[in-house]
Design a protein that fits this description.
binds iron/sulfur cluster; alpha/beta; 6-stranded mixed β-sheet
Length: 268
């Protein structure tokens, strides 16, 4: 086992001990000194320094238990090297953002170049459209939770720009982190954005025209499938935009939110 994987295993064990016993495990000065001695190995192996991202401001204003649990996963994700090529090419991991008590959780496929730079999901052009959709539904962006199946930007060897979809193997490897996030947040409704997110969540592949606009279920949580906002940027047809909006109205109805006349007539 290489050093980064071994370190991650140790961290996971310590976190489990802390969670199960309610006590923070202690390490002697000798052990800490030994770890400091080992640290340069990571530098020799050219593994980037894991960035432990602080909880977002939204994480700080809710149920402390959820905040701590999410922060613990976020810390593990920040140091994760299970996909060595992605760990070495990423600027940082992109964990997720929003209200840990969110009623709606949006799930996309993977960070792109903008998200990799900023460390937040859905901040590029597609993200701006998603924010517009969320606001049209009547929520501030901070009120929902947004995450991806993959927490690292899929690498594009030989090219410094462009994005590629994650492979099924990468999604399979990273999926447990998303499962933990969903398990903690417990949203009333999940929204899968695009066919790749559906594959990451449900393991099924099908054309979006067959998947979208109907309720599915993910481990007992209602799951609405709709187009990825990037698809709407590529396909500006009003009828495609209307379909996404109709899917979002189904979500509002499921949550028993009032829908105004203006919202019913809304076009993205
Ligand atoms: S994609 Fe997920 S599993 Fe792979 S290195 Fe990144 S955080 Fe780890």
């Amino acid at each position: 086992m290489q050093f980064p994987q071994a370190l991650e295993t140790v961290l996971q064990t310590l976190e489990r001990l802390r969670d199960e016993t309610g006590h923070r495990p202690c390490a002697s000065r000798t052990v800490l000194d030994a770890l400091e001695q080992i640290a340069p190995a990571r530098v020799r192996e050219n593994i980037p320094e894991p960035k432990i991202e602080p909880p977002s401001p939204d994480l700080r204003r809710t149920d402390g238990n959820k905040v701590e649990k999410l922060a613990a996963i976020q810390g593990r994700v920040a140091g994760c090297t299970k996909c060595p090529n992605l760990a070495s090419s990423r600027t940082q991991t992109v964990f997720g953002v929003g209200n840990p008590d969110a009623e709606i959780m949006f799930v996309g496929e993977a960070p792109g170049a903008d998200e990799d730079k900023q460390g937040e999901p859905f901040v590029g052009r597609a993200g701006q459209l998603l924010t517009k959709i969320i606001k049209a539904m009547g929520f501030p962006r901070e009120e929902v939770y947004i995450a991806n199946v993959l927490k690292c930007r899929p690498d594009t060897p030989g090219s410094s720009y462009g994005n590629r979809p994650p492979t099924p193997g990468e999604m399979q490897t990273c999926r447990p982190y998303l499962m933990e996030q969903i398990d903690i947040i417990k949203p009333k409704v999940l929204v899968a954005l695009g066919a790749v997110a559906v594959e990451g969540l449900l393991g099924t592949r099908a054309p979006m025209r067959e998947l979208r606009g109907r309720w599915d279920s993910f481990n007992g949580t209602p799951l609405m499938i709709t187009y990825h906002p990037a698809y709407l940027l590529r396909n500006q047809s009003p009828s495609e935009k209307r379909k996404v909006w109709e899917d979002m109205m189904l979500v509002l109805e499921r949550l028993e939110k009032p829908i105004s006349e203006k919202q019913r007539n809304y076009f993205l």
